[in-house]
Each structure stands twice: as C-alpha cells, then as structure tokens.
Write a structure and sequence with these properties.
This protein is an alpha+beta fold and 548 residues long. It is 34% helix and 19% strand. The protein has 18 helices and 23 strands. The strands form six sheets. Strands 3, 4, 14, 15, 16, 17 and 23 form a seven-stranded mixed beta sheet that branches. A seven-stranded mixed beta sheet has the order 10-9-19-20-21-18-22, with helices on both faces. A hairpin with a 2-residue loop joins strand 5 and strand 6 (75-78). Mean pLDDT is 84; it is low at 1-26, 243-250 and 506-548.
Amino acid sequence: MTADAGQADATPLPEGSLPETPLPEAQRWDSIVVGAGAGGLTVAHDLAGRGYRVLVLEASDRLGGVATGIEVAGLALDAGAESFATRGGAVAELAAELGLADDIVSPNPAGAWLQLGDRAVPLPKASLLGIPSSPLARDVIDALGWGGAIRAYADRLMPVLRIGKDDALGPLVRRRMGRKALDRLVAPLAGGVYSADVERLDVATVAPGLNNALTQAGSLSGAVAVVLEERAAAVARGDAAPSNAQRPGSAVQGIRGGVHRITAALAERARAHHADLRTGVRVTSASPTPTGWAVETDAGAFAGSSLVVALPEPEALRVLGGLDGFAPLATDAAGVAVELVTLVLPPGAISGDPRGTGVLVAADAPGIRAKALTHASAKWPWLREAADGREVVRLSYGSGAAAPATEGLDDDAAAALALRDARAILGRDLPEPVASARVRWEQGQPTTVVGARGRQQALRDAADAHANLFLVGAAVAGTGLAQVVPDARRAALGIRRERFAVPGTPWTDEVAPDELAPDAAAAHDETDAAAPAASATPARDADERGDA
C-alpha cells in the first residue's frame, strides 16, 4: 500500500460549503485550520480546549500527517515518525496532557550499526551525527580503518578553530577529519536522519551548540566531546531524558503502541471539545475578508475569523500564493520523496538483535538500495511483546534529491526489493514476510539545509503581514515533533478572539468591548447603536460552544 504525505492511502486512522451571504452562524468559525498533521491538530486541540469554534480541513482521508498509524498483520505501527527528540520536553509534556505519560518509553540502548562496503560495524558510541569525539577509539578504527582514523585524528593537530562559524556540515567534516569519516560515518547517519544532502546540512540546525563548542574546544572532535558532556550533564540535572543520550544521534523516546497515538489523541480531544475535523476536503485558496478569512475548497467555501495553515511548504504556497508577500517565495526546487517498506517476518526469522536497533547504509555498500533498516521489534520492547515472536523491520528508500529505489515499482516488487536488502543488511536468509506495507511521503524542501532558516523566516514574515493568519508545521518550525509541537502551541496562544471579535463573527456578544481591538470595538459600538435589539440575543451555554 502506498501513502503520500498529507495524501496517504495506507490504512487510515478513524476518520464541508458557503452559500451566498449572509452566512448562517453554524458555518462561521473562530478558526479554520488547514492541514491535520501534528501541527494542525495541536492548534485545533489547544483552541478547542479554550472553547473556540474550530474547523479542521484535511485533503487526505486520514489525520496525523507523518505521525499517523498503519496496520500490518494485525499490528498497529507507525506509518512515518516512530520517535521524537527529547530536547525541550514539549512533546513529552503534550503526551502527558493527553494521558500518555505512562506510555512514554525509551528505545533499546543497543544502538545502530553501519553497513560498509565489505562489513557491518556498530556506529561509534561517543559521536554526534557520526562525528567521533575520539577518532582513535576502537569502534572508529573498525569503521574507518587505521588510515581513516589517523586522518580523522589529524583534526586535533590542525590549526585551532578560534571561532566556530561553519554553516554546512559536510565541508566542515571533510576539512577537519577527511573524506572517509564523512562518507562512512557522517553521511549515512546525518543524511539518513534528515533525508538531505550532507553537503548542505546546516550545522546550527542539525547539531545545535556545535559551533559554540568549536570555539571552546578548538577542534571538531573536541567540540563533539563538549556537546556530549553537556548532554550528560543535562541528564544528570534531570533536564533531559537518559534514554540514549550517549548513543549516536539525538536522544529520542517513543510511545508504547506507537507515536501515532499522540495525533490520534489530539484529534479525539479536539472532537470532544466540539472541533469539526473533516477529511477529504482540499483547500484551493484563501483570501482575507473584512471579518476574517474566506477559504475555498473542492467542497465549497468556509469563513473564519482566523486562519491557520499547517501544510508542507509547496502546499502552503499553493493555497496562499495569491496573497501579498507569498508569490515571491514560490520555487521550482524539487522536494524530497521517501518510501518506507515494512516487513512483518514469521517467528524465528531473526535470532536476537544481530544489528542492534537497525543499520545505516554507507553509499559504497554494494548491491543494497535501501538507505537504512530499522529493526523495529528490536528497537521498541513494546513492539517485540505485541509481535508475539514475529519480527518487524522497516526499510527506508530515498534521501536528498535522489528518487527512492522503489520508484516505479508496484507494491509486490517493492516488498521483494526490501526483502533482498534486509537479507543483505542482516546477513541472513530471511523467509518471506507474512505481510508487508509500503508508505510514501512527499516532503517539501528540507528544513535542515543551509538557507532554510531564512526561508522559514520569510514565510513567517509574509504571514505576519496579514491579520489573523498563522503558519505552523515543519515548513516554518523545522522537521520533527520536537520542533513542530512547541511552535504550534505558541501559535495557538497567539490566536485570541478579542483580536477578531467583530459584529457578525462568533463570540461577539461574549467579549467585553474593552477587550476588542480598537477597530473592532468601534464597529461593535456602531452595531449596538444601529441594532440595539441584537444584545438581547441570549449567549449559548458553555457546553454548546465547546467548553469542557
């Protein structure tokens, strides 16, 4: 089965038109949210919980975006994101609000392996995105050989870095540690994690604190050591989760039963507060009106006092491209396509955890088309228990601008390719799977490359120029729940009905005139003078308007 980001058709989660004016009140909304990924659902949850009347419009037939679920062989699995970075604590805090605090889990600390051209080795333990803090450590030598390790160690002997100001990760690693360290360690890990060309990855985005540590330590390996020490100190203080803070990459956690439970709970809570969540409704355009926003869809038109666009960048620009400030941001740059093929193997197919929690594949590994393999039932103890002896592996295809190797294949052929790759990566003659699933995600331009932060700010600036228009999601916040969730919650806090409560919009009679924005207050007074009987209309009770 195949799924596109925002238009997935893999097994969906359980789960509108505007006539001529004047609008019936039932078709007016405090806020219209376009897109039901993690960002859009977070905003809808927070606003509906405050009693706002919220309409969510999602083009696909499912909710959750890349944090949605898929069922394979009776197992509820993540169709996209399967973990979240622990930094900041925003995702764990939201999960706790949703009643999932006791279900936050840490992955198997065994860590990942690296598939080289002629062998598989564990990723170096003391590393950051594959950059080793001790270039002559045994696990680094195993990966690079003595020649590559000595070249990486030359980083300690090169002129001291007085000011850390590198923008791109690839050139920094190549200059300081050599091409072998870049190609064998950093490119598979960093490029795989962020689905982007390592030559363009923004150091400040993918490795926060590294440039400052470069200035402090004077070498790249020394800077990695500083960052790892700071992480360990944060764990000791209780400011970060201990899950795998010392393993390659970022410390992550998951949810027992799958990360998709977060977006499912957001949707359930939003509905409980009377938000209207509609799937299969594609928004074609949006335009400002004297009382808010008009949204055109393939199912008709809707009006709201505020508008939240929670779409990938290309889709956001398609909807908003006709507005001042957005047209110049349109681009022909290709996005990134990633395909994930999940195999559920019969009991006994894999003995133990032969490659830890999974394998990242170096570019020089012959005959393997996958970029990575996640041994999901080894990584997550809850899944191993649920699988009841079966094994679950997920193979990833596509990275950077390269098309996935599964491109053009039907589902059976894609599953067959994944099985061949899994056999090669795990070094075992695996049996045929009992079931398989294929999911495709179409993403916008990577938000982790050099220049992306400037583009994100330009999108925010364009939105800020329009009253009561808000952008959320990866297009402006960056990739990952740890980025998207806190940004969406800040946006929700910025949506306050006293800023848009004008005659003819919901809640007007429930907002005191001194709470209204100046123009709205004046309009409110004029309407009262012209039609004093309007104030006699009784306000709806709390339950009707959506308060808990």
